[in-house]
Amino acid sequence: MLSRDGWGGLAVLAASLLLFWGTLGLKDNPLVPIGPGFYPRIVLGVTAVLSLWLLLADVFASKPPAASRREPLNYRLVALTFAVFGLYVGALPYLGFRIATGLYVAATCALLAPPRNAKTWAGVFILAVLTALVTYLVFERYLLVLLPRGRLTGF
Amino acid sequence: MFELLGAGLLNILQLKYLMPLFIGSLIGVVGGALPGITITMTVIVVLPFTFGLEPLQGLSAMIGVYVGGETGGLITSCLLGIPGKPSAVATTFDGFPMAKNGEPGRALWLGIWASIFGGLLGAVFLVATTEPLATIALAFGPWEYFSLFILALSMVAGLVESSLAKGLVSGAIGCIITILGNDPVLGQERLTLGIPFLSGGIPFLPVLIGVFAFAQIMSEVERMGGGVKAAEGVDRGVSLAVSHVKVMWEIVSRPFLLLWSTFIGLVIGVLPAIGGSAANMLAYDQAKKFSRHPEKFGTGIPEGIIASESSNNANVAGSLVTIMAFGIPGDAVTAVMLGALTIHGIQSGPLFISQNATLAYGMFAAYILAHGLVLLVLLPGVRWMLHMVTIPKAMLFPVVIVLCVIGAYALNNTMDNVYVLLVFGLFGYGMVKSGFPLAPFILGVILGDQIEINLVRAIMTDSNPWLFLTRPISGVLLAASVLSVAAAIWQHRRSQKRLAQAAQDDAADF
After folding, report:
1. Is residue A34 part of a domain?
2. pLDDT tens across B260-278, in order?
3. Is B63 exposed, middle or buried (0-12, 13-18, 19+ CB in 10 A)?
4. Phi and psi, residue B234, nearest 5°
5. Chains A & B: contacts with CB separation below 8 Å
6. CB A78 to CB B398 under 8 A?
């Protein structure tokens, strides 16, 4: 059975071989001695060899018994945090920076430390509004960075 | 040189440069003091604010963050027993016991003054060596550059403790990122997978921000809600007053320890992409080995604090040497600085110091002055910093991520960079969970283009591939790459044998 090193090696090997195959379609130019595929083939070839090494090292390694006690990790929270961020990135062009950022900060805050009473909800709300407004003012007004406007909101 | 440095110091003393340097130092101290917020993350947060500033203003702010962060990390290490950042881990070993033994002020200020001394000794090295090293690098042709970059990658991969193969694969993946897009000779599209955005290649800053920020934040998020017990620190109302002359004397009366730890920090800093976390552990280990009373280490002795803190601040100077002389980032923070330079259209590398003398000497001056400013922040504010650690991460992380988004978006005002941020945020977290080190990956992303350009230039100048080996400097650099990989394999096998032996001994005990 492969460990995470073995699976990692296998994934990188597959990706590098797939991309290597992709470089075979690149056409060389007779005017220059080196074509566009020259360096990518070297990099992908070296990566394939290295990932094969990783894979084989894992296959032939004597695996120590798994540690019995580990700190429990909250992967569900990680997945949800990524999902909220994905929604934020997706919503930015439609809602605009100020609205999307306010919603994102409030949602992530509430996700990471669920508010228990009206006071903590107020804290989340204030942080969300302040983050959206302060970053907008500092970057748009002072640093002249044009932040995304919403296609739906025009804001 | 001294004339230019003097001019640089006068330049930085102008309010328009001094202010960003001070604010950067303040933010750095706070970021360094907050456990779970690394200096890399702090400098990433500061990055978007520098876009609208002059290059020297922006870089001064970043240097302030860097120096402040290295010093700020020791506050929680000494007073709470929680390292504020990885490069302050070794400070905890003696700083916290000393504080618990009733001398929190001594522990804290020994660390702060050792940081200042180590950093300023590092400044001497920074100013004295950067220009001569850049002059040597100017004599390099494409063969030497190619070999230098290969050496940098192989060294970083080789220094990964867990697995050499993983370090090398990680560096290679970084190089793969750079082959997507147009080739540098004819501009022909390659491996763009039909995505128009990829034809211009993937910009490295959103990759760097995504990988480092999300890897760090998500690694903290996965531990949230687990009911982790807060560390028992010293009483927050306890006096931190101390005789500064006495504390300084404790440091300077150990000149060998101070100089050796500083030297270790500088060497680790000069080596690409290793960082202060290795420097402070190595310096602590060396201090223990050279000590006449190694058994006292870990009980709260000044030597442990001085070694750790002088080395991690000197490490900053070493990292700056590498980026300013060769254009190779010494660690993740200098990689972000490299990005800031690129945004302002400044090419780092051997020509940097001769073509941008005002900027380069301004950076030296900023580095020197940052130590004084950090002291200025800490003298009245050290107790206040201790209260900063109570800021809930649930409130801090979304704000940090918003600033990361702005940093990526503002590079060229397109959402494409934000999508890159999201993709590489996931990718970076995946790499961490699969045990692939991030440092070689980022170095691969940064150097991949340069490796290709120099390889192509070398072959187009002379198609004889043996020149990479027969040109003396190039040959030596490539031989050093092979040696570093061989040394890493040897070291890895030795540690595996030790582990196996220890496991056998444990089994025999039962």
Report:
1. yes
2. 999 988 888 887 656 666 7
3. buried
4. -75, 160
5. 182
6. no
